Amino acid sequence: MNRYATAIWQGSGKEGKGNLTTQSTVLDKVQYSYKSRFEEGPGTNPEELIAAAHAGCFSMKLSFVLGEAGFTPDEIETKCDITLADGAITKSHLTVKAKVPGIDKQKFDECAENAKANCPVSKLLNTDISMEATLA
Q: How many CB atoms lie within 10 A of CB 96?
C-alpha cells in the first residue's frame, strides 16, 4: 500500500506560501506558511500534521493491541505534542486517556507501551517518544 500527499511552495522561506493536498483530498490545497509554522497564522504546518498522524496511528494500534489481549476499548483519546527545536523534531509526547472495560492498570500500561513502540509512525520517527497513559 502506498499513500501520497503533495506540497506546493511559492516564494522564499519566510515570505513565501504553500498548500498541501492529500491523496484522499481531506486536505485540499490547505494553506501553510512561515507564520503558520513558526508564529500564529492561518493554515497548518508539518509538525501539526505529524502530531495528527502519530496520535491517530497510536490510537488505532492501541485498539489492535487491546483486542489481541481480549479487550475492546470504549474510547481512546490521544493528544500528541511535537517539539521542533534547533531545526529538528526532537520529541513526540503522547497523552493517552482510554476507557477500557475490564482491564487493570498494569495490563493497560503494557498494551500502551506495546502500541507506542510498534505503531508505524512511532517506528518512522527518529526521535524521543514519551507517553502518559491514563485509564478512565
A: 22
